[in-house]
Specification:
The structure is a single chain. Strands 1, 2, 3, 4, 5, 6 and 7 form a seven-stranded mixed β-sheet that branches. By secondary structure, this protein is α/β, with parallel strands linked by helices. Helix 3 packs across helix 4. The termini are close together. Helix content is 34%, strand content 27%. Helix 1 links the parallel strand 1 and strand 2.
Amino acid sequence: MKIVLASASERRQELLSRLIKKFEIIVSDFDESKVPFKGSIDKYVRDVALGKALDVRGKLNEDAIIISADTIVTLEDTVLGKPKDEEDAFKILKSLQGRKHIVYSGIIVINTARNVIKQESLATEVTFSEMSDDEILKYIKTGEPLDKAGAYGIQGIGGIFVNEIKGCYYNVVGLPLNKLKFMLEEVK
């Protein structure tokens, strides 16, 4: 059965290729703003990932295993999305320095032939070191923070600011491989 990744993220594509050699990419057109936040971050990331997966399911003409994920960064229960611009990236990074934040991912795996849907969420605690304003500005000039939730990429230059991590590294990158491996085994 074919496997479909419901994501345009190059990071997720690269990570999935470590588990599965052959898969297709079908990008979801799901409007994430339609998912209301009702107080549970775990449920919210699962609901967004489910919306993406179901959108892709509607685009398929054959059975498949669909993989979808959504990742957000939170600081004291405030969701830190992708920065709007360099000024917003600076504010986000400044707020993270020397502090602990939590990265949540929701993962959905659907086997359309068996009509089985597995939903999981995962949280990873990340602590940043102190950063000078110059370090933050220099990092922003690389362009890396501008398309990432929380304004950093742990797998890139942003990793130099990570002092400590508790939990799954790949969750912070955007696709928790260990969790996904077991989910795939469950739906086959």
